[in-house]
Amino acid sequence: MDAINRERTLVGRADLDLDPVKRPTREEAMAAVRTLIAWSGDDPRREGVLDTPKRVVDAYGEWFNGYSADPAKELSRTFEDVQGYDDIVMLRNIEVESHCEHHMAPFLGKAFVAYMPTNRVVGISKIARVVEIFARRLQTQETMTQQIADAICDSLKPAGVAVLIDAAHQCMTTRGVHHRDVTTITTQFVGVFKTDRALQQRFLDFVNRG
User: Fold this and answer.
1) HSE of 97, CA atoms in CB hemisphere, 13 A
2) At 125, phi and psi to the nearest 5?
3) Nearest alpha carbon to residue 26 among 61, 65, 50
4) What is the pTM of this model?
5) Rg (CA), the chain
6) pLDDT tens figures, 152-204
7) Could you tell me if 116 and 82 are in contact, meaning their C-beta atoms sit under 8 angstroms apart?
């Protein structure tokens, strides 16, 4: 990634002509971690944290590798031979491991994604991969829910899409109000899942199945 996502960075700032923010070098990122260690009150030269900057940068490379992946590419290979199948295709309990963009704290949970195919389907693993790509970016749960639905709509042109995410945010459980048993649910219904209440209820029933 040579530049931070400009569209989301400059929301509400279309009047400004700003250069893209360049990605720091690995050494610059490690230096920033040393600064945070020192700011927290510890000594970055201490044996126990001497290699922490390297480990943190490696972890960030994994946690945020969604910036270098393209959801549309994952959904580009489709199959038209569906033998007349025209009902829900749904994946349940997709692991969500993301980080909130406000505190950079993890939020963890499950995603439930369904679409109503028209004349083509996609390999089911690709739907899970799309969730993973958007999760591995700095996010709000609301935005991620919308992004997943939009990506599937844009690539597959289905009759409808439904997305539900249920996640616990550590920015709420480990700091601030410290409510450990609270989860957040977000939904997005598009097409027939929005207009057909019975179909929407079927999706929710599938979500709640044991």
Assistant:
1) 9
2) -65, -25
3) 61
4) 0.88
5) 20
6) 999 999 999 999 999 999 888 787 777 778 899 999 999 999 999 999 999 99
7) no
Contact 121, 62 (CB under 8 A): no
Residue pair 156/122 in contact (Cβ under 8 Å)? The answer is: yes
Task: Return the structure tokens found at 175.
Answer: 């700091």
- Is residue 64 packed enough to be buried (19+ CB in 10 Å), middle (13-18) or exposed (0-12)? middle
Please give the structure tokens belonging to residue 26. 């690995």
Contact between 164 and 125 (Cβ < 8 Å): no
| Cβ atoms 44, 38 nearer than 8 A | yes
**Better-predicted residue by pLDDT, 80 or 161:** 161
* CA 109/CA 96 separation, integer angstroms: 5
Q: What sign results for the dihedral spanned by CA atoms 55, 60, 63, 68?
A: negative
Cβ atoms of residues 44 and 64 within 8 Å: no
DSSP assignment of the chain: --B--HHHHTTT-TT---PPPBPPPHHHHHHHHHHHHHHTT--TTSGGGTTHHHHHHHHHHHHTGGGG--HHHHT--EE---TT--S-EEEEEEEEEEEETTT--EEEEEEEEEEE-SS-EE-HHHHHHHHHHHHTSEE-HHHHHHHHHHHHHHHH--SEEEEEEEEEEHHHHSSTT--TT--EEEEEEEEHHHH-HHHHHHHHHHHT--
